[in-house]
């Protein structure tokens, strides 16, 4: 997708601070962190949101979830708990239309979120 910010990050046309990468998944630091650890986990395939996931994507989504868990464990986020969030639609705060999961940790989180 030509005008997609996260596709540009995936293709290294825009710099990011990468913490995990394999053939299907990229995890990088959020440019405007809302927690001491704030990462974004994306499939390399352009999928606009959770609503656009297709049956064919099931292996990619599984890999994405496994990578999130692996990075969370590697960074020790499991000790205090951490949050994984995907905003869907403008009303929920989605500003980039490429499926991404926020991984946030190392601070206290409230429930329900604001
Ligand atoms: P959303 O608002 O769609 O749920 O999340 C988009 C996230 O992308 C935001 O947390 C924002 O800080 C992050 N972001 C926006 N532009 C960039 C960028 O150029 N680089 C990185 N690493 N993160 C970005
Ligand atoms: Zn994209």
- Overall geometry comes to globular
Strand order of the largest sheet: 1-2-3-5-4
The end-to-end distance, rounded to whole angstroms, is 31 Å
**Helix and strand run:** HEEEHEE
Helix % is 10-25%
What is the overall pLDDT average? 97
Question: Which sheet architecture does the biggest sheet show?
Answer: 5 strands, antiparallel
Q: Layout of SSEs?
A:
Blueprint: H1 5-10, E1 18-21, E2 25-29, E3 37-43, H2 58-74, E4 82-85, E5 101-105
Antiparallel strand pairs: 1-2, 2-3, 3-5, 4-5
Bound molecules: guanosine-5'-monophosphate and zinc ion (ZN).
Question: Can you offer a commentary on this structure?
Answer:
The chain has 114 residues and is α+β, with helices and mostly antiparallel strands. It has one domain (5-105): HIT-like (HIT family, subunit A, 2-Layer Sandwich). The chain has helices at 5-10, 58-74; strands at residues 18-21, 25-29, 37-43, 82-85, 101-105. The radius of gyration is 14 Å and the shape is globular. It starts with a helix and ends in a 9-residue tail after the last strand. The mean pLDDT is 97. Residues 1, 4, 6-7, 46, 98 line the site of zinc ion.
Q: Gist?
A:
It contains two helices and five strands; from the N terminus they run αβββαββ. The chain has about 110 residues and is an alpha+beta fold.
């Amino acid at each position: 997708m030509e005008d997609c910010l996260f596709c540009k990050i995936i293709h290294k046309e825009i710099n990011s601070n990468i913490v995990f990468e394999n053939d299907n998944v990229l995890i990088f630091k959020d440019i405007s962190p809302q927690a001491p650890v704030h990462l974004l986990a994306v499939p390399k395939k352009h999928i606009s949101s959770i609503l656009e996931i297709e049956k064919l994507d099931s292996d990619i989504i599984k890999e994405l979830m496994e990578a999130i868990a692996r990075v969370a464990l590697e960074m020790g986020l499991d000790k205090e708990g951490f949050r994984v969030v995907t905003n869907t639609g403008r009303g929920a705060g989605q500003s980039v239309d490429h499926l991404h999961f926020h991984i946030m940790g190392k601070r206290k989180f409230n429930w329900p979120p604001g």
